[in-house]
Amino acid sequence: MSEETATRPGRASRARHVYAADLVRVLTFACVIAVHTVSTVNPIDSVPGGAAVMLLHFTREAFFVLTAFVLVHRYRTGGLRVAPFWRRRFLLVGVPYVVWSALYTGIALSTAPLPAGEALAVLVRNLLTGTAWFHLYFLLVSMQFYLVFPLFQRLLAATRGRHGLLVAASAALQVVIDIVLHDPTPTGWVAAVLPYAGSFVGSYQFFLVLGGVVALHHEQVDAWVRAHPAVLAVAFVVTGAAAEGWYQWSVASGVGAVFATDVFQPVMIPWCVAVVAVFYALGAAWTDRRAGGLGSRFVERASDRSFGVFLVHPVFLWALTVGGAGSVASHLPAPWSTFAVYVVAVIASLAAVELLRLTPLSLILTGKGRSRRRSQHPDSTRTGSRPAAPSTVGGEPAQGGLT
Fold first, then answer.
1. DSSP state at residue 43
2. Are 101 and 79 in contact (CB under 8 A)?
3. Secondary structure string (H, E, C) spanning 207-250
4. Distance (Å, rounded) from C-alpha 254 to C-alpha 233?
5. What is the pLDDT at residue 76?
6. Which candidate, 21, 37, 100, places its Cα nearest to that of 342?
7. Cα angle, residue 315 at apex, residues 312 and 320 outer, rounded to 5°
8. In-domain check, residue 355
9. Residuewise pLDDT in 10s, the chain (403 residues)
10. Between helices 137-158 and 95-111, what is the axis angle to 10°?
11. How many structural domains compose the chain?
């Protein structure tokens, strides 16, 4: 990429709507629900289930790339006012985080009740660590990134002209982080922090740096992706085979399926990058062909609802699988139980979000205001069309990878 031609942070201009991000977000969310469904429906030590999870475990890294991309693209030409930025982000993400942490803590306590004092202590711990349910860590990490985002911008500005070196150094650091975190027998401070490593922004620093750098060089990266589909396809196959091969070798060597699918493994880094690149390529191709039809409207609407779906879908996974051998999901044999639960969870989550968006609780439960009829975004990707609103990247005003 040409760093000399990247837009210099600090200059005011209008940021165009990146429609490709809509499809990246929708595809990644589909995979998020898939990995959670596989992990919820199947036994925790299922080797076939772990094989699927290994390939689906790119989702959190993909969202951190998207989070940094969205925010840096939004503010790459200036206009960031720190106090309003923090106020908006913590309102749209922090409030739902607190509310859903309380709701999911209540769900967990419904099956294992505790005295009021102990239950309150559990809620406080869950809020501090992002562990109320298996997906809420992402919101906690996102808020940590919002907090340091002004410094992140300064880092990108200070390394202008050396972004390739920054990405390389960050990738090397990520390898070290993954090696430290992927420890089968942790001791000392590592054992103390390891259960909460997934809730710390530093654990994903490479993917945030990658997303930020790509945003600053979006035009060059977009052109390269469009010109090299064969390279992306080969990278996708090779890195996916390497990740799956590493999983199979680990299991054959006596490693448990859960540990073998750990997201903090160096082999996952190239796989995650390859998937994000391929998803973006698909998004770019869709952008070129979108014409406001049913498919395009569905993608844009699904992208807009994605944060709410992320928040609510574990409720349906829990409802379909609670009770173990007597659950609803147990009435079908594997793998049909997984497919059925996935379809139901997706449809039910979308329907629930549509209903929530019509209520006064929409903001605190979905991170979005109540639904109102709005005109379509103008298509900024076609010659002669008007640019989208300056704050849009992949749908709504940029709030991060999720929203």
1. -
2. no
3. HHHHHHHHHHCHHHHHHHHHHCHHHHHHHHHHHHHHHHHHHHHH
4. 32
5. 86
6. 37
7. 140
8. yes
9. 433 334 444 333 445 778 899 999 999 999 999 999 999 999 999 999 999 999 999 999 999 999 999 999 999 887 899 999 999 999 999 999 999 999 999 999 998 999 999 999 999 999 999 999 999 999 999 999 999 999 999 999 999 999 999 999 999 999 999 999 999 988 888 888 888 999 999 999 999 999 999 999 999 999 999 999 999 999 999 999 999 999 999 999 999 999 999 999 999 999 999 999 999 999 999 988 877 778 888 888 899 999 999 999 999 999 999 987 788 888 898 899 999 999 999 999 999 999 999 999 999 999 998 877 554 444 433 333 333 333 334 333 334 454 4
10. 150
11. 1
* Distance from C-alpha of 107 to C-alpha of 125, rounded to nearest angstrom: 16
Q: Which of 86, 113, 54, 74 is nearest to 258 (CA)?
A: 54
Sign of CA dihedral 358, 84, 100, 393: positive
Q: How far apart are CA 168 and CA 153, in angstroms?
A: 18
Q: Is residue 129 one of the residues assigned to a domain? A: yes
Residue 241's alpha-carbon distances to 6, 15, 95, 274, in angstroms, are: 34, 37, 40, 12
Find out whether 320 and 328 touch, Cβ atoms under 8 Å: yes
The verdict on residue 373 lying in a domain is no
Q: Which domain holds residue 109?
A: 19-366
Is residue 90 within 8 Å of residue 146, measured between CB atoms?
yes
User: What is the Cα–Cα distance from 70 to 392, expressed in whole angstroms?
Assistant: 9
| Alpha carbon distances (Å) from 31 to 60, 90, 288 | 10, 26, 24
Residue with tokens 């009740």, as numbered in its chain: 113
- Among 264, 156, 253, 272, which residue's Cα sits nearest to residue 214? 156
- Whether residue 12 is contained in a domain is answered as no
Contact (Cβ atoms closer than 8 angstroms) between residue 310 and residue 135: yes
